[in-house]
Amino acid sequence: MTPSVIKLTITAEDRRVAWLATAAVGLSLVDAAIPSPLPGVKPGLANIVTLVVLARYGWGTAVWVSALRVLAGSLLLGYFLAPGFFLSLAGTTLSLLTLGLARHLPTRWFGPVSLSIFAAFAHIGGQLLLARLWLIPHDGVFLLTPVFAAAALVFGTINGLIAAKLLAESGPSETPHV
Amino acid sequence: MKHWLALVRPGDWLVMLASALLVGISVPTFWQGGLADRAIIRQEGKVFAEVDLRSKRQFEVSGPLGTTLIAIEPGRARVISDPGPRQYCVRQGWLMRPGEIAICAPNRVSVQITGRTKVYDSISY
Fold it and tell me: Do residue A113 and residue B4 have CB atoms under 8 angstroms apart?
């Protein structure tokens, strides 16, 4: 029997996505290790990677990196296909869609900080929506909205600043192919 | 500190401000009614007393089975004792959020907490 060899060619793009996703997964683990006063209130450090990737390599790569992060992060933390996984997925999806729209804002006026805040709000919005529709079909879920919104503002701003700093430090030498 | 501020573009300040406003608005929107400020005690469906939740007081409301004892304290109210067989309203404990209600059905007495704005729940509907 001749061994059939399936060779997958790995492009530079694949390697880049893999590396970036690894960084994002690492930050997700850090996130999970930080004690939080309320389930759902997390710094969301992995979003820094998403923001940098979005600015550098475009929206498509950001989607890949985020999707891999959600998948690998949930496997490592042991909540793959548990409710938390779907909450995470819903939040990430909505936040990516928001970023897809928000990145067309004039960059002279709106930097990573704006994008980060938008993404944070979209993230929490997606999670609350899914929680309301599926996990806890009661309006009581929304009682926590002010807390989540405040957290989104604070962490969104901080993450945005970090992303802006990273982007500024490595310089605009690499042309972002949007 | 200064070079961190340099990373914030003009529109970013606007977004931050707008989000802060949104957070501010979300508090009264989602935490409806705010703090508990009044209690309405009903007897046979008619208002027996409307009390400000400021001072410590007790009310004795008589119904078909006997007397229901209600305690009012700053910011909260509860049914202390009731002649009803199942004691649901007593076991509910302190009521502190607008919209909360303890109903002692057998004795036809209820205590409801209200805030500044009217809160609807499934019972109102």
Answer: no
Q: Which ipTM was obtained for this model?
A: 0.82
Q: How confident is the model at residue B120 (pLDDT cuts 50, 70, 90)?
A: low
Domain that holds residue A125: 12-169
- Asked if the model's pLDDT at residue B80 lies above 50, the reply is yes
Look up residue A101 and give its two tokens: 């729209």
Bridge partners of B49?
B41
pLDDT at position B125 is: 47
| Cα dihedral B19→B20→B22→B24 (10° resolution) | 170
**Interchain contact, A109 vs B9, CB within 8 Å:** yes
Does residue A96 belong to any structural domain of this protein?
yes
H-type alpha helices, chain A:
12-33, 46-57, 59-77, 83-102, 112-130, 145-169
User: With an 8 Å Cβ cutoff, is B125 touching chain A?
Assistant: no
Nearest to B23 among A150, A160, A168 (CB): A150
pLDDT(A178) > 70: no
Report phi then psi at B41, rounded to 5.
-100, 130
> Residue A23: which CATH number?
1.10.1760.20
Is A165 a domain residue?
yes
Residue A174 lies in a domain: no
- CB-CB: which of B4, B7, B27 is closest to A146? B27
Question: Comparing A136 with A69, which gets the higher pLDDT?
Answer: A69
